[in-house]
Amino acid sequence: MPYTAKITDAKKEFSLPDNASYLDVRFDILLDDEVVAERRLGFPMGTTEEAITAEVKAYCQMYENDHALAAEAAKRSEAEAEAENVLSALKGLEV
User: How far apart are CA 71 and CA 75, in angstroms?
Assistant: First the structure.
């Protein structure tokens, strides 16, 4: 099941360094209806609902891709560690 997002808060904020208002959108990233992360994005004033939801969806896809890559890297690392164990066991072995 893919990651999904639930927008938990959306409000107008003001950035002092930029001297500008912006839209602050907070959302949870869910996997099987379980919150796995909380995120927050800022958008310029005038950003449409469609643009914001598209960006949140894209963020979920990026999050999912990152976790898939991390899982693949963990499998490779595990395989490499096992190969090192085999090589270490073979060194000096008399057969």
Answer: 6
Contact (CB, 8 A) for 2 and 60: yes
In angstroms, the CA 52 to CA 28 distance is: 14
What is d(CA 85, CA 77) in angstroms, rounded to the nearest whole number?
A: 12
Q: What is the pTM of this model?
A: 0.73
Over residues 26-64, the pLDDT tens digits come to 999 999 999 999 999 999 999 999 999 999 999 999 999
> Which residues span the domain enclosing 33?
4-90
C-alpha 39/C-alpha 42 separation (Å) is 10
Q: Which residues pair with 29 in a beta bridge?
A: 5, 37
Residue 42 is assigned to a structural domain of this protein = yes
Flag whether 95 is in a domain: no
Considering its fold, how many domains does the chain have in total?
Answer: 1
How many Å apart are CA 70 and CA 64, to the nearest integer? 10
